[in-house]
Amino acid sequence: MISVSLAVSAIPEGLPAIVTIVLAIGVQRMVKRNAIIRKLPAVETLGSASVICSDKTGTLTQNRMTLVKAFDGSTSILEDIGSDNSPSIKKLLCYATLCCDGKIMFEDGVEKHIGDPTETAIILAAHKNGMMKEELDASYPRLAEIPFDSERKMMTTVNLIDGKKIVIVKGAFDVLSSYCIEDNMRQAREYVDRMGRDALRVLAVTFKEIDTLPAEPAPEIFESNLTFMGLVGMIDPARPEAKEAVALCRKASIKPIMITGDYSLTASAIARELGILSEGEETVTGRELSAMSESDLKERIGKISVYSRVSPYDKIRIVRAWQERGEIVAMTGDGVNDAPALKAADIGCAMGITGTDVAKGAADMILTDDNFATIVEAVKEGRGIYDNIRKVVGFLLGTNIGEILTVFFAMLLWREAPLQSMQLLWINLVTDSLPAIALGMEPVESDVMNRKPRRKGESIFANGLGLQVLLQGLLFSTLTLAGFMIGRTTGNLVTGRTMAFLVLSLTQVIHSFNMRSSRSLFKIGPFTNRTLNLAAVASFVMIALVSLVPPLATVFDMTTLSNGQYLIAVLLAFVPLPVLELAKIIGLVRHRK
Q: How crowded is residue 321: how many other Cβ atoms within 10 Å of its Cβ?
């Protein structure tokens, strides 16, 4: 991709500064939409994002887990969680709670969940059944532990229960099942699938008794020959705005992808609900992904919309596979292990609420609300900002080319300068800068998400902008020279320069309204950009001051014109308006879909 900063490095002085102002305005807009940009080039890159890889929990869902179902491993009943469950389910909840680090506090009748939402959902279910975590911890003290690890997908504790040393392990069923003594596991797998199809996140709880406690907790000692105890199923509702955001992605030709540590069926169910997983698209597990070669992944990646049970390294492979296809990839992450993937992505998006400092440090953008919809809004703003930069670049280049050609042809034809240096400086200061900055504040166009993402490597002058700039410069030059010639013919050289100044300066202010959109000005509303309206009024006032107030007119080497000459100058200045409107109608100024 040709960077905006590189594209403008060789164009008129002051333009890079104005582009920076436009970027800064865009950054402020994004902050209001809960997206903090850490690296300015990310604003430009966002507009061309074609793939968004997102975590599920907390980003696509509300991260408010509620435990709703449980299976005790022995009966054939999938029990609803309430306030008075069966003794076997209560025991299951008790053991699961002992193997949790989260807490629930009640302040003025309000629940306050501290820690991992999965754990607090278990603790709350136990609390509803009359088992407070603090009391359980006091009655059955923890002797040792092996914390949860995203690679192992398990957590282990050793608790003293009724005088016995009991190892409790909770984690992903498909991982834990391989460490269990085979006992009714077929039925357990059926319930895992059943709950997964209902979009429930499922955890297995296992245990065993040990005689002695080793000096150092070791997974190979604690996490083997386990007895399956049961399953707990919890739901994390999808964010209401996420479904709309996914639909907007599809409309904008952006591929949304879910990456999660959840069970395959659970991930697929949520993805279908949100519209991420459509007919003909695939769900791939981390194990299946590991078995794929780089060439296989590159070939299949276009059809894969959901990745389940993946590792942080898998995320890097996914990012690179898409990038090799020429796509611009946005990737979300929150953990320390996600930092390499955030670095590898074109746009790394860290979670502002649950994200670690390491993840935030590696990211280009921080989502202060951990919301997928915020990424999509940021992409929309990114497209709008890039559009505004093109408008500013097109406006300033067109007007500057008009000035250069005016002087060049006048010297060639008459060997006389049509404008004094003071007049040119005033035009550049007033009629260029103020409207240009106001164009950078143009609202995002309503159809910006109906277009395809920009192609990788696309120049800022693509889609005919370069030719448009040249033709507009020729038009401004022709009109200014016409004014100069009329003034010079009906008066003298000073009269010609006065008319040339008025035509060129007024033309540029009026043309700024043309540059607001490649659609008709009257379709978007000619005066809907309030900042541009104010900038135009300010420019008109300052043009009038130096051309009509005698002391200032003398300094700028201008004279008073006749009413007819003023009318001709104004009419010439308005010519670009109907010309550009006609060009938009017949398609010379293209609106890329």
A: 22
Residue 55 shares a structural domain with residue 71: no
Which residue of the set 55, 116, 262, 346 is catalytic? 55
Domain boundary among 217, 235, 253: 235
Give residue-wise pLDDT tens across range 556-584. Answer: 999 999 999 999 999 999 999 999 988 88
Query: What's the domain count of the chain?
Result: 3
The pLDDT tens digits for 54-78 are 998 889 998 888 999 999 988 778 8
- The answer to whether residue 510 scores a pLDDT higher than 90 is yes
Q: Is 419 a domain residue?
A: yes
pTM greater than 0.90 (yes/no): no
Supply the range of the domain harboring residue 310: 35-61+239-370
- Structure token pair of residue 371: 């919301």
Q: Per residue in 535-544, is it b (16+ CB within 10 Å) or e — as a string?
A: bbeebbebbe
| Rounded Cα distance, 239 and 245, in Å | 10
Q: Write out the E strands in 472-592.
A: none
Q: Are 499 and 568 in contact (CB under 8 A)?
A: yes
84 tagged catalytic: no
Is residue 309 helix, strand or coil? coil
DSSP 213: -
Q: How far, in Å, CA of 178 to CA of 96, rounded?
A: 19
- Residue-wise pLDDT for 262-305, tens only, equals 888 989 999 999 999 999 999 999 999 999 999 999 999 999 99
